[in-house]
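User: Can you help me understand a structure? I only have the sequence.
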Amino acid sequence: MTDGYESGEIRRLGLEPDDLDGHTLDELTDYLESGRQPEDPSIEGSAGCQLALDALERLRGLGGQLIDADAAAMPEVDDSWVDRILDGIALDARAGRRIPFAPDEHGDDFAITEGAVRGLVRSAENAVDGLLVGGTHLRGDVSVIGAPIRIDIDVSAFYGANIPQAVERLRAEIDERLRRHTELNVVAIDITVRDIQLVGTWTKGTR
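Assistant: Let's start by predicting it. Here is the structure, written out as tokens:
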């Protein structure tokens, strides 16, 4: 049984350097462990790297709690849920499809990437205790302005959390962020709780 760390570091993920502007996730893990010093402009200036670093830093905070859970849980904590979280982080780092904004009066063409939208969804977990976002998928043709889009999200819940309440809070938080930062026509936000983990008292402290 592992806890999401190996030799004190976040489990290594497979991700192509092209997805991270020439960097690998191994390099980002080392950079995070070094306290992001000395500062690397090629990492700090990469949107994909920033998405991956942000998610990895949140996951890193689980390390001690996962070890405690592994020792106390009956049956043992299933580490496959950590793999799902890590797979979601890897997906977030990929730019994916281009999502356009409606042209302004000057005809300027602006857009946001699918990866950035997945990053917005993942960031919403900071405002909700008891849930950790795994994977996010945008269903529909995001390249067409106004096309109906469904957001499918997998989450892990922590034992003791009020799961229905936490799910509704997460849905509301995601909806608000997507309305504020995108022009997607989101017709549904479907959240699936894939598993429940015993990880002691879980709070993010951000509301």
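Now, to help you interpret it: The beta strands are 5-6, 9-10, 98-100, 111-113, 131-139, 148-158, 185-197. The first strand starts at residue 5 and ends at 6. Let me know which part you'd like to focus on.
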